[in-house]
Amino acid sequence: MKVKEVAELTGISVRTLHHYDEIGLLSPGRRSESGYREYSDVDLETLQQILFFRELGFPLKKIKDVLNSPSFDRKEALILQRTMLLEKRSRLDQMIHLVEKTIQHAEGEIHMSNEEKFEGFDFRHNPYEKEARERWGDKAVDQSNAKLAGMSEEEQKAMGEKMNAIYRELAALRQESPASEEAQAAIKEWYDFLNSNFGSYSLDAFKGLGQMYVADERFTKNIDKFGKGLAQFMCEAMGVFADRIR
């Protein structure tokens, strides 16, 4: 399909498609003899992925990083996108309901207590737990939560310090190849740490977790506090580790 046909099919402007090409986000696999861009079915699948991520608020640079990752898996991404979109829909439904009640309160039709005015806002839950249950099942998450609940404050602090030490070690290596001996030794330490403290991680689950580090900007933001680009580096190193061990 030519660029104009893709624009008509998707509702995206020709200018936007040209921009995606220019920044290397979506470059058509071929061009016609006259030099026009021609999009294949594979290109259209990639465009669909881009639009899903855009709907979830991902910046173009982050989308490019995710799609270019050697460990990127389209089905894995679709599962994560579905989970995040369902979560987004649920939260929007809560906000709409709260706004409607607030309008009724402002017009004197109902009375809202202070508690009711903020019933749609809940920042106390773990934002990653839903994704974890979707990917690895209730058993793994419940085991992890139970173990944490049974630890003393000192034990939790020691575990946190160990985790931060591994992050710092990996951050110091992030300019190296994710497949290097040093990087793989450090990522094995991360694999062993997760299995010792958060239940049993299969190689597929470990690789999937790495993909989430770059697919979910919440993970990326927290991990990259130890060094810009660390989340991407860990994602690639975890993919290499999982593929080598199989």
UniProtKB/TrEMBL annotation:
Keywords: Activator, DNA-binding, Transcription, Transcription regulation. This is MerR family transcriptional regulator. InterPro entries: DNA-bd_dom_put_sf, MerR-type_HTH_dom, MerR_fam, TipA-like_antibiotic-bd, TipAS_dom. Gene3D superfamilies: 1.10.1660.10, Antibiotic binding domain of TipA-like multidrug resistance regulators. Residues 1-69 form the HTH merR-type domain. Signal peptide: none annotated. It comes from the Bacteria. Pfam families: MerR_1, TipAS. One of its GO terms (molecular function) is DNA binding. CDD domains: HTH_TipAL-Mta. The keyword DNA-binding applies. It comes from Siminovitchia acidinfaciens.
